[in-house]
């Protein structure tokens, strides 16, 4: 399917008004503020996956003043999405997520160009999607393998695209991570040989995607739930947390200020930043296929009934 294009209506006076309260945080002085906002305005961001985090990021980036977004998602809203996803309502159930989010974001100010891929990311369109993007957000489900690999390959082949950033959620925790051109590629990180059974594949990817387990429920209960439902459980309060963490890094990366003295550098995969709102802890961990707190949680679970 040919991408759907929503063409922006330029209004520089209104644009300056709506981004004016952000600019002061974009550098050390007026010159840097203007330069940074100009970079944001001229950037193109691709969002692969318009669910609980990707859809909200589209709106947040438009609020920041990004003037071109590419949105891709093949799925339609259903009742289970109403607990967290931007654009999900009784009126949009059954409608394509990328189209709904694209329309809503466009109507914010009508000065952002939106290119919509309602077929989602495919092995055929990944290069077209990434082409022209300064940065890509990979918010595809972690178990969507071929499409993810195609997206990342296109990123590595596109000179313009700086980074792939992503944020995933489990329980009360958000996991923030990125891929750079010369960092470990996702194919090596995932280490899929094609011979895994579904339970083995689910467990392998879960240890990478969420290397720190929530305190409750137990690991066995959560894995069993995923295998039974063929999806992942999501606590409705965590996608907004993920959005808040992710948007900061996107802006810092765009304006090339993700290093001291402006910020602390986020190392790429296999490392990631994990923030748990329940325990009020945040740390850099290495996602190497091993849960970082499983022994600690075994002791904890012994003192509570989790049946």
In short:
With 307 residues, the protein is of the alpha/beta class.
What does this 3D model show about the protein?
The protein is α/β, with parallel strands linked by helices. The chain has one domain (4-301): NAD(P)-binding Rossmann-like Domain (Rossmann fold, 3-Layer(aba) Sandwich). The protein is built from eleven helices and nine strands. The protein has a nine-stranded mixed β-sheet with strand order 1-4-3-2-5-6-7-8-9, sandwiched between helices. β2 (44-48), α3 (54-64) and β3 (68-72) form a beta-alpha-beta unit. α3 runs parallel beside α4 (97-109) and α3 (54-64) packs across α10. The longest helix is centred in the C-terminal third of the chain and has 17 residues, at 238-254.
List the helices and strands and how they pair.
Layout: E1 4-6, H1 12-19, H2 30-42, E2 44-48, H3 54-64, E3 68-72, H4 97-109, E4 113-117, H5 126-130, E5 135-138, H6 145-157, E6 163-170, E7 173-179, H7 186-190, H8 198-209, H9 219-229, H10 238-254, E8 271-276, E9 281-286, H11 294-301
Parallel strand pairs: 2-3, 2-5, 3-4, 5-6
Antiparallel strand pairs: 1-4, 6-7, 7-8, 8-9
Helix pairs in contact: 3-4, 3-10
Kindly report the oligomeric state of this protein: single chain
Distance between the termini: 48 Å
Mean pLDDT: 93
Strand order of the largest sheet: 1-4-3-2-5-6-7-8-9
Q: Please indicate the count of domains.
A: 1
Main sheet summary: 9 strands, mixed
| CATH level 1 name | Alpha Beta
Label the CATH architecture.
Answer: 3-Layer(aba) Sandwich
Order of helices and strands: EHHEHEHEHEHEEHHHHEEH
Structural class call reads alpha/beta
By CATH, the superfamily comes out as NAD(P)-binding Rossmann-like Domain
Would you count the extended β strands for me?
9
Shape, per Cα inertia axes: globular
């Amino acid at each position: 399917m040919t991408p759907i294009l929503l063409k922006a209506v330029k209004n520089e006076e209104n644009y300056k008004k709506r981004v004016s309260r952000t600019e002061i945080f974009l550098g050390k002085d007026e010159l840097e503020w203007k330069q940074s906002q100009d970079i944001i305005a001229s950037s193109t961001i691709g969002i692969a996956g318009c669910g609980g985090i990707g859809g909200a990021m589209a709106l947040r980036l438009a609020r920041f003043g990004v003037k071109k977004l590419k949105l891709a998602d093949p799925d339609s809203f259903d009742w289970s999405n109403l607990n967290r996803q931007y654009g999900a309502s009784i009126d949009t159930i059954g409608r394509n997520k990328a189209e709904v989010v694209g329309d809503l974001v466009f109507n914010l100010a009508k000065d952002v160009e939106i290119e919509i891929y309602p077929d989602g990311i495919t092995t055929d369109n990944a290069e077209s999607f990434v082409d022209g993007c300064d940065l890509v957000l990979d918010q595809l489900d972690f178990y969507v393998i071929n499409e993810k690999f195609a997206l990342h390959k296109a990123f590595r082949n596109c000179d313009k695209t700086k980074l792939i950033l992503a944020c995933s959620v489990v329980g009360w925790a958000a996991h923030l991570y990125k891929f750079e051109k010369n960092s470990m590629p996702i194919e090596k990180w995932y280490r899929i040989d094609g011979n895994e059974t579904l339970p083995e594949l689910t467990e392998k990817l879960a240890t990478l995607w969420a290397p720190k387990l929530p305190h409750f429920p137990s690991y066995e209960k959560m894995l069993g739930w995923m295998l039974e439902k063929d999806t992942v459980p999501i606590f409705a309060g965590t996608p907004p947390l993920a959005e808040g963490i992710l948007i900061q890094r996107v802006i810092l990366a765009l304006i090339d200020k993700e290093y001291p003295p402006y910020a602390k550098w986020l190392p790429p995969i296999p490392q990631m930043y994990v923030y748990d709102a329940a325990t009020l802890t945040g740390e850099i961990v290495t996602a190497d296929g091993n849960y970082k707190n499983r022994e600690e949680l075994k002791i904890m679970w012994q003192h509570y009934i989790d049946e």
